[in-house]
Design brief:
The chain is 47% helix and 15% strand. A four-stranded mixed β-sheet has the order 3-1-2-4. The protein has two domains: 46 residues; 56 residues, no CATH class.
Amino acid sequence: MNDLPPDLPRLRTLETWLAYSLKRVRQQIAAAERQEAERQRGAEARPPTPDWILERGLNRDSPPVAVHLGGCHMAGKRWHGVDRATALRALADGVEACGHCRPDAELGYLD
């Protein structure tokens, strides 16, 4: 069973269409490979998650409002990474510990 046209003009038309389709597929593959490479570079360049974070109040000069474990999903957008000593000092100064990630338990801090 032959599903191709028998005459040369239609075969040439089909050849042109297939070449055009193959070119589009290859362009799409190249774009997907570039996007994947860019995603991979971004993942490799991403800084490591800090061990402890302090969540700030509404303005830059406000004191911290909560201590979180690094990567806690409950931390707002206004936070910065700190070291263990700074996190302990903040808890000792009365900054609230996150109730979800429990940094006070992880730090061994008891009231």
